[in-house]
Design goal:
Elements lengths: L1 E3 L18 H4 L2 H4 L2 H6 L1 H15 L8 H12 L6 E3 L5 H5 L4 E3 L2 E7 L6 E3 L19 E4 L9 H10 L2 E5 L11 H7 L4 E6 L11 E4 L2 H13 L1
Helix pairs in contact: 5-9
The chain binds ligand BV8.
Ligand BV8 binds next to loops.
Length: 228
């Protein structure tokens, strides 16, 4: 089981959340990443996600060596590899990871609050964006906001019940329930826990092995060592 956070996409040019120049240093989470914010000012929330969606489409924003190393691990590892990401970017998808759960949603999709249809939506959303299914006007980003239940939790906890190895990559370990997955894995008897990050996360004491440095260096080196 591999859990990734914003740190793995940093060297692809996408901001993290809690670093000094991170997203939450520029905009208040309460204004753009909660259902109340969307109800209060949908235009502002759309603007926030439209800007991040547009950034994702820039030619220089591509999967980096860490994303590619995880896709290679999935191809070459004799057992099951399940990748859970908190990231809403599509860099793991574009790197070729197959067994992938976007537990906080996906920037490249829109969801209809009326009929729940999820549609690919690479472009900008507005308050007039119509659902391709039921034509309701008022699509929302297919994102899990604070106070909303993350996606794929049943699949995640079921996979964790059987996991022998839990790896946390590029996450500060500050958002739950994602940050609680390593403790859940340990409770279920996972044999080994590994943290690959720029610096120790909030839960670093729960990890048997810890390697610190930029993801594009630390992750490929760790994958090479594991496959060897
Ligand atoms: C829920 C989508 C109920 C939006 C996101 C009080 C205590 C505990 C919990 C709570 C509480 N009050 C409220 C809560 C619950 C709340 C929560 O945890 N709040 C926190 C702030 C305290 N959680 C929720 O609301 C969740 N829902 O609880 O529902 C429930 C739960 C279970 C079952 C039933 C009901 C919903 C949370 C999802 C919110 N949506 N994202 C968007 O993206 O716009 S969360 C957001 O934070 C992102 O998804 C992000 O991925 C996530 C975590 O952040 P990180 O990925 O870790 O990024 P961060 O910047 O923090 O860290 C980056 C790390 O990378 C750093 O460690 C850095 O050192 C490292 N790094 C930097 N550069 C590099 C690097 N590493 C390697 N290489 C580099 N180059």
């Amino acid at each position: 089981m591999i859990l990734t956070g914003a740190g793995i996409s940093k060297e692809s040019g996408l901001d993290t959340f809690r670093d000094a120049e991170g997203i939450w240093a520029k905009v208040r989470l309460e204004d753009v990443a909660t259902p109340e914010a969307f109800h209060r000012d949908p235009g502002m929330v759309h603007e926030f996600y439209n800007a991040r969606r547009a950034q994702l489409r820039q030619a220089n924003v591509v999967p980096n060596a860490a994303h590619l190393a995880l896709a290679r691990l999935e191809r070459e590892w004799p057992g099951e590899v399940t990748l859970i990401t908190q990231n809403v970017d599509d860099l793991h998808d574009r790197a070729g990871s197959q067994s992938l759960i976007h537990m906080h949603g996906q920037l490249t999709k829109a969801r209809c609050p009326t009929c729940n249809l999820v549609s690919p939506w690479p472009g900008a959303l507005t308050i007039a964006s119509q659902c391709p299914g039921c034509h309701f006007e008022g699509l929302r980003p297919h994102i899990v906001w604070f106070g909303e239940v993350p996606m794929g939790l049943r699949r995640i906890y079921t996979a964790l019940d059987e996991a022998s190895l839990f790896v946390s990559i590029g996450t500060s370990g500050s958002v739950y329930p994602a940050a609680g997955l390593v403790a859940y894995a340990l409770e279920k008897g996972v044999e080994r826990t590994v943290e690959l990050n720029l610096e120790p996360s909030d839960g670093s004491r729960l990890f048997d092995e810890r390697r610190y440095g930029p993801a594009t260096e630390v992750v490929p080196a760790w994958v090479d060592a594991l496959l060897a």
